[in-house]
Amino acid sequence: MSHYNIFVRLVNQVNQVNQVNQVNQSSPYKSSYRSEIDGLRAFAVLFVVAFHAFPNWLKGGFIGVDVFFVISGFLITSHIFENLDKGHFSLLDFYGRRIRRIFPALLLMMVCTLTFGWFVLLADEYNQLGMHVASGAAFVSNFIFANEVGYFNIDSELKPMLHLWSLAVEEQFYILFPLLLLLASKLRVNLLFVCLVVLLASFFVNLYFVNRFPTETFFWPFGRFWELLVGSLLAWLTLYRFSINTLNLPKSLVQSYRISLVGKWLSQIGFFTLIGLLLLAASVFMIDKAMLFPSYTAVWPVIGASLVIMGGGMNYIAKLFLCNKLAVWFGLISYPLYLWHWPILSYLHIIEDGTPHRNQRILAVLLSIVLAWVTFKFVEKPIRFGSDNKTKRTVALGLGIFVIALLGLWVSNLDLKETKGVGDVHLRKGLEHRIGASSRWYEGEGDWLFLGNSFSKTVAKLRLAYEPSNQNILKEKKQFKAVAQKGLESDTAVALLVGSNKSSIYTEYLPNEMRPSERRYSTFVTDKLRDIPNLLVVDPTDLLFDAKSKEGILYWRTDTHWNQKGSYLAFKLMMENLSLKIPSIEFIKNTKTFGGDLIEISGLSDFPLSVGDDWMINGLNESDLEIFPNVLHKNSSNLFETRWEGVVKNAKGLNDKTIWVVGDSFTDAVKPYLNASFTEIRYLGYWSDKVNDLPLLLSEAVVKPDLIIVVRVERTF
């Protein structure tokens, strides 16, 4: 028999199996409780908890969520297939079961988190929590968080409801997929075919968009459904006992697939289970948050979880690692443990204004376990399996989640500035929360305003509440090394000009309670960057700190940024290190007042402004400049790029060189000096969007620049 005929028979057999199941015959396999799946749940939840509590110990623990997705897809689809086979699948019954399973613990956690937040959070933070509670109750929080912050960003630690993104993905799957399967069943469409098509489509979306929109791909369901659908595929294979022996193939061919004694021995030992657990262990230790995820990387934990499920619970490995009492117990409380652990850890970060001590995090994990057990025993089980009317319980839970959603929306729109100010907040240790109206700003001495912790953890970094992770340092080094190496190939020098935080320069105006660390947070990164050949790192902090007493004010009192003189001193230091000519500048004190971005951030429109925060420049003639749009990015919608992209030519530039500039808002005050110093300056836009593109732009450029300058504020390291 030809291979083609064999393939045709295979396809026909699959269709026959599916058709049998669609004529209301009983499923060949009736699902039952599988303790090894609870054991797998235990591994998954403990991975996640360990990653959140001790990210440096278990760097890839977040893959536990992907394991949950596979398990969930397997169990839910198994239930749907069984009931479709019997001809009595009911959407109302299905969604009722989901409500009784998901809502009890979720409601309790939300009420407790919202209540505790009242005593800990400031006005804007509590408003945000209200919105997150509402979106979590509506199971759309993944879309909300995709627009706010990346899962691995520092600010994510300050969002007690962040973990609900995965629950939202699952519920979106539960809403859409049963409808699709029910429709396919009524139309007699092969259910296996449906699962495969949607799985491949979702996986393609994941691969296509993960490089372009990594945050959205991480949170949105379209690039995540394939993980649940792998579980659905497993459900089909398990329920219908699909095997080579069902195909009625020639005996000679079947014999080649016959299970040998070695195969039986491997099955008893648990070969699939062992390989699956090894893949999960490797994923936990080899995958980290610096990698693009989910992408191809997520395939390994998904395969690992699938192999464990395929292995079953009757083998030695499964009985040893998955079916023991401790693993099963953690599996049973895995859902409430997942719900409780993150808000507790998040509030601990908020209270401590940085990474809590290891012992505090250990206690937080233990508290989460206790609360999970209490929730499972006294809330989840009685409500889910109670003997009273199921319909009443379901309706009550639905009303409860509706009420908490409305409560969250109401809280998000409340004006709480008078009732949740600094004096009304308890337990907080973060200084900026005691001396400012919010974590976004705080007031120093002498009418000086400073950025608060919401902006890249500015205060925590100033106090060195924690050190940057090795992963972060390596990530920064990797992207700058790529630019510097490509620069060597094109004879292009690369310079990084650090925009010093105002709080690093004017420490005398910081509140008395605030004590900056002797070593600055950013230096952990910049010291490593200095080792890169062809990269000049210029950090003007020491220069500006020493110059402020004799040069006059170098930063705006009510703005984040350095003024014209402060930026000139930093620029001059960079040019001296590059051995380039520097324009001679005369400064005259400006008599006009300036509000600044901190006035806007704080909302203090009547704050007293001081004269003399800036300088007027003499010695620069802008009439020699020719300004052209940057044709490389003419359609950019980024505010900074719209403002800063373009090409400036100066025939009288002091240095006959072409330069590229990427930077942030600290570039603003430096721009006049750049324009005066070079014959051609191409402004490419914001550094975070463009640094990774620079190697490619260098390769494609017909005319290579002589110098690339990156301007980047200190707090972003």
Describe this structure in words.
The structure is a single chain. The chain is of the alpha/beta class and 717 residues long. It has two domains: 398 residues, no CATH class; 216 residues, no CATH class. Helices cover 56% and strands 8% of the residues. The protein is built from 31 helices and eleven strands. A seven-stranded mixed sheet has the order 4-3-11-9-10-8-7, sandwiched between helices. It has a two-stranded antiparallel sheet with strand order 1-2. Helix 3 crosses helix 14 and helix 17 packs antiparallel against helix 18. The protein is globular, with a radius of gyration of 30 Å. About 7% of the residues have low confidence.
Shape: globular
Structural class: alpha/beta
The average pLDDT is 86
Radius of gyration computed on alpha carbons: 30 Å
Number of domains: 2
Count all strands and give the number.
11
What is the helix fraction of residues, given as a range? 55-70%
Query: Between the first and last Cα atoms, what is the distance in angstroms?
Result: 65 Å
Roughly what fraction of the amino acids lie in strands? 5-15%
- Placed side by side, the strands forming the largest sheet appear as 4-3-11-9-10-8-7
| Most strands sheet | 7 strands, mixed
* Number of H- or I-type helical stretches: 31
Model regions low in confidence, pLDDT < 50 over at least 5 residues: 13-30, 243-249, 251-260, 631-643
Q: What oligomeric state best describes the polypeptide chains here?
A: single chain
